[in-house]
Amino acid sequence: MGGRIVGMPVLLLTTTGRRSGQPHTTALTYLPDGRNLVVVASNGGAPKDPDWMLNLRTNSRAVIQMRDVRLAVRSREVAGAKRTELWNRVVQKYSGYAAYQSRTSRTIPVVILEPEPDGGSELKSSSVALI
With CB atoms counted within 10 Å of each terminal CB, which end of the chain scores lower, N or C? Predict the structure, then answer.
């Protein structure tokens, strides 16, 4: 954790399982966007969205960890001009995302992770607790 994959930094995203209610953690590349972070639900160009995306659609709250910093976030899927702008920035960082899009008929979701206003500071608990 704290490293880079395909030239992009990596974070851990912990979502709440939409069926199980249990925490699920996934390593994802991200793009900083001000104080927000942008992640892409590419699933390698598979025909369906990754489970973490489905979980966020059910419960937009999650926890991210970057190195030793853990933050409570709320997710927001973007569309229209904002999606296009962020998609182009992500593809500039890693052109593989364009290849993933060419493999699938679905539009690959672009998601903004925004720190929670009341819980966006570093979480103090040593275990991942979903808020």
Answer: N
Pairing relationship of beta strands 110-115 and 61-66 according to DSSP bridges? unpaired
pLDDT of 94-123, one tens digit each? 999 999 999 999 999 999 999 998 654 544
CA dihedral 71, 74, 80, 84 (to 10 degrees): 20
The answer to whether position 130 is within a domain reads no
- Answer whether residue 124 is part of any domain: no
Reported as a single tens digit per residue, the pLDDT across 26-84 is: 999 999 999 999 999 999 999 999 999 999 999 999 999 998 889 999 999 999 999 99
Q: How far apart are CA 60 and CA 23, in angstroms?
A: 13
CATH number of the domain to which 38 belongs: 2.30.110.10
Alpha-carbon distance 18 to 11, whole Å?
21
| Residue 67 token pair | 């190195």
Domain span including residue 79: 4-115
Please say whether the beta carbons of 9 and 28 come within 8 A.
no
